[in-house]
Amino acid sequence: MPHGVVNVVFGTGAKAGEALVCHPDVPLISFTGSTLTAQRIMEKSAPYCKKLSLELGGKNPAIIFDDADLSQCIPTTLRSSFANQGEICLCTSRIFVQRGIYSEFVKRFVAETKKWKVGNPSDPTVDVGALISKEHLEKVRSYVKKAQAEGARVLCGEGVDSLSLPGGNQKGYFMLPTVISEIKDESCCMQEEIFGPVTCVVAFDTEEEVVKRANGVKYGLAATVWSSNVGRIHRVARRLQSGLVWTNCWLVRDLNLPFGGMKASGIGREGAKDSYEFFTEVKTITIKH
User: What's the pLDDT score for residue 167?
Assistant: First the structure.
């Protein structure tokens, strides 16, 4: 690769990031991060009319119908909720379960959640490592406390189960995978991105109802739908306001396909052809000879 094609600048977002965003010689910006930071990027870059590709937060729903295969659904939804301590923008943080199987799902889901081991991620037997910082750990914990104050029930994890860690990990920013139920859709835990090992489980009755509730947040990044009814899967997937919809799976990706979100989850798409079009310019040249 020719010298100068790729340049790496180290620094904080407030210093290095803002300097690049505001520099007139930087023609476009591809950003992955929080919606709040993206808003600042849009404000700072607006005077220059820069091209933007923004991959932002999510409040991703899993919709589980009563004909779902729970033997596949439960372990996959566990992974989608708690992988990487929930610190993935694609993680599931709202689980809608059809009422006919709600009790069975919750019982099995909570039992499996309690089996997840928290500790040093270098240990191959560990499922959940530490969160990114002390400040973020306290932020995630505060959401659980807010949910309890609003009348929600914590089924397992933070505040109800004890966390046992090896001596070398005692001061780490660890948190148990946490499942919350009996929570209202308007609760902060159901509306705001938590970005931690916390997920909420609620019941629904009809397809029409759950689509409306799943879409009832400002985000629209990813969703999962679980059902054995192919017609239903297509109907629901089309109506969900999500840039990515997985059916009977999670995080199955082909890098040739577009990646990105709707609403407050981002602007634009990346991946293969979409990335090529974003990082290049189309030019029309007319020649008379």
Answer: 79
